[in-house]
Amino acid sequence: MAIVSLCSTKGGVGKTTLAICLAASAARRGARVVILDADPNGHVRAWRDAATREGRGVGIAVVAGVTESTMQDRIAEAAENHDLVLIDLEGAASKAVTFAIAESDVVVIPSGISGMDLQEVFRTHAEVKRAEKMLRRSIPARVVFTGSATIKSRVAKHARQEVSDGGVQVLDTETIRRPNAYQAMHFNGLTPLDPDGDPKAAQEIDQILDEILAVITPAEETA
Ligand SMILES: Nc1ncnc2c1ncn2[C@@H]1O[C@H](COP(=O)(O)OP(=O)(O)OP(=O)(O)O)[C@@H](O)[C@H]1O
Ligand SMILES: [Mg+2]
Hints:
Blueprint: E1 2-6, H1 15-28, E2 33-38, H2 43-53, E3 60-63, H3 71-80, E4 84-89, H4 95-103, E5 106-111, H5 115-135, E6 141-145, H6 154-165, E7 169-170, H7 179-182, H8 185-188, H9 199-216, H10 219-222
Helix pairs in contact: 1-9
Residues 11-17, 39, 43, 91, 146-147, 175, 177-179, 182-183 line the site of adenosine-5'-triphosphate (ATP).
């Protein structure tokens, strides 16, 4: 069982998109998956409604309306009967965010590759570090670059270097900017992982999920 928070102090960096796609990837592997929607805007709930209407999103549970006061209980309940708990957070620092970080096996920090985005990566990572100090346990965090113009672009390479130099680890796989693949889900529930989705996007999402799960269960432990 794994608890994964999608977290950034910046809005619009791809948290919700990644939460839904990672859930779809895990569900396709037969895992029992739940997304906790902890953003007051309820974007995951909206996706679930659209998906249900279109007969998609099968095998992905959604718990909507998770708040600061219910976060810990909802996570504990979700963890009881799911293999993967994904927590979609709002794009700001809050107590709900701190509580989610505190319960997480890994914190995923989606980010664009601009300088301003990187500042927010460090701010978000500082929140994780604060939680680590408070709890006296280590909480792994990984940045994932989202919406890059091309695979391993020069700018992305610089961004990767700057984040690594700042002491934050970055996943190898990034999501490429693919409006057709990623932006339909809010209208019709279609994720890249669906049979009529986008295979290239699905592949990058599968790889990102693999990398996240490897943080929680390193290969040598499973060997
Ligand atoms: N790889 C991608 N290619 C193209 N569009 C993308 C990609 N990733 C995300 N998007 C789009 O970027 C926008 C912001 O993404 P998303 O809603 O997932 O971000 P967020 O971090 O959850 O934002 P918020 O903080 O407002 O909740 C959405 O319109 C989404 O469809
Ligand atoms: Mg969101």
